[in-house]
Write a structure and sequence with these properties.
Helices cover 35% and strands 23% of the residues. With 336 residues, the protein is an alpha+beta fold. α1 packs antiparallel against α3. The protein is globular, with a radius of gyration of 20 Å. Bound molecules: (3R)-3-hydroxy-3-methyl-5-(phosphonooxy)pentanoic acid. (3R)-3-hydroxy-3-methyl-5-(phosphonooxy)pentanoic acid binds next to α2 and α4. (3R)-3-hydroxy-3-methyl-5-(phosphonooxy)pentanoic acid is lined by residues 26, 29-31, 45, 116, 118-119, 150-152, 203-204, 294-295.
Length: 336
């Protein structure tokens, strides 16, 4: 067994390695894959990493184990195991080992409910596993491995505002880069949780169904570079108004595509829609806030810091909102 540094890989069975990562929320949405293996996105995307929601993952490699083991939130998770093992295989390949791993992961927020737990989960996994295997890889290599676990996980390797885009020369070459640190534009996010149920159609299944059946899909792909460019400029200029408009449009376009697929995908609940109206109304009254919604019924209200408490109060008063979480922007995945 040989590592990438040409030294023999001896699993450090006495030690567990722990990493933390935070979910990220896309302002310009990734929806659609060009290649399902490897999760190569059909479109670029732009996200913010959240501080208050966290995944902590512990990894230990062990030569005595005949299969990987995965415990999620305190319970064995056989459903998530094949995907986790496929991602670990990439790192094992790099390290030149077949050694199996024990993985234990904990989220401080609802799992698989439209709060990007797979993004933080795979980002934390690759960072902890890479350390356990003694790999000396760059952040962009970790982003690539995380993406192969879950498309959006590449963005959680970094903090603040992060862009994931397709290389101009090689369209299957995916580049993930931070564009602003959290401190450079300290926006906040109010997450309105309207349900903690596991979503009925996963993002991967939903985007593939949309690609195959939505009449608007090709236009979505064609227009994305322009949206990404607009959002990047807005972020670099700290132009809240401009970012509000392009982000809400990207979110509504993504859901518009999904709604128009056959049969249409409806990720929203009545409370989701009520939150969107309330956010629009707050903005009309001068509060710097805009919304985004992923593949689930939760609403994320992005706002300037001084508006966060009022936005949370307003969203909490809406029928069907179970609770709100206020978050600053967070940093990238790291060992803890
Ligand atoms: O990475 P996935 O397969 O969970 O897909 C993420 C899809 C959205 O959250 C809806 C959009 C995005 O860019 O994060």
């Amino acid at each position: 067994m040989v590592t990438s540094n040409n030294t023999t890989f001896i699993p450090d069975i006495a030690h567990s390695f722990k990493a933390q990562a935070q979910p990220n929320i896309a302002l310009i949405k990734y929806w659609g894959k060009q290649n399902i293996p490897g999760n190569v996105p059909a479109v670029g995307s732009l996200s913010i990493t959240l501080e208050a929601l966290r995944t902590e993952t512990v990894v230990r490699f062990d030569t005595e184990m005949s299969a990987d083991a995965f415990v999620l939130n305190g319970a064995s998770n056989p459903i998530g195991l094949p995907r986790l093992s496929r991602c670990l295989d990439l790192l094992r390949h790099e390290a030149g080992t077949h050694c199996r791993a024990y993985v234990e992961s904990e989220n401080n927020f609802p799992t698989a409910a439209g709060l990007a737990s797979s993004a933080s989960g795979f980002a934390a996994l690759v960072i902890a596993a890479g350390k356990a295997l003694g790999l000396q890889a760059t952040r962009s290599r970790y982003a690539q491995w995380a993406r192969e676990g879950s498309g959006s996980a590449a963005r959680s390797i970094y903090g603040g505002f992060v862009e994931m885009y397709l290389s101009k020369n090689e369209k299957t070459d995916v580049i993930t880069e931070p564009i602003l640190n959290p401190e450079e534009w300290p926006l906040e996010v109010v997450v309105a949780i309207t349900s903690t149920d596991v979503k009925s159609v996963s993002s991967s299944a939903g985007m593939e169904h949309t690609r195959l059946t939505s009449p608007y899909y090709s236009h979505w792909v064609k227009a994305q570079d322009e949206d990404l460019h607009d959002a990047r400029e807005a972020v670099l200029a700290r132009d809240f108004e401009r970012l509000s408009i392009i982000s809400e449009q990207s979110c509504l376009k993504m859901h518009g595509l999904a709604l128009a697929s056959r049969p249409g995908l409806i990720y929203w609940s009545a409370a989701t829609v009520a939150c969107l109206h309330a956010i629009r109304e707050m903005r009309a009254h001068g509060h710097p806030v805009f919304f985004t919604v992923d593949a689930g019924p939760q609403v994320k209200a992005i706002c300037e810091r001084q508006a966060a408490a009022e936005v949370a109060r307003t969203l909490e008063s809406i029928n069907g909102v179970q609770k709100t979480i206020i978050s600053r922007l967070g940093h990238g995945a790291r060992l803890v």
